[in-house]
# Entry
Amino acid sequence: VQLVESGGGSVQTGGSLTLSCAYSHSPYCMAWFLQSPGKERERVATSEGLSRTTYADSVKGRFTISRNSAKKTLYLQMNSLKPEDTAMYYCAARGDFYCSGSYTFWGQGTQVTVSS
# Structure
């Protein structure tokens, strides 16, 4: 599975951004991760198939993960952004149905910077 992210950028606190991830095949498990400097990569949103989604507590109510299967694109709509959301964001996929496990396929990442 090839993954290509886009849509990162710089916004002020309270602003919004939408990240996109184009994929070559259609995996059941897809997710968005973020990684801040000096910290471990953290999964923030998961898409299981076409209907089930889960979120980390830190983004619940602010971020929305979704897919357009016709366009083979995964999205992360980010609202009410905070400076602590500043990170490199990665799209990821795995080839089975165990969406809580480690992810095998990764995009190159897109930077999100939120200024106060």
Remarks:
- The mean pLDDT is 96.
- The two ends are 37 Å apart (CA to CA).
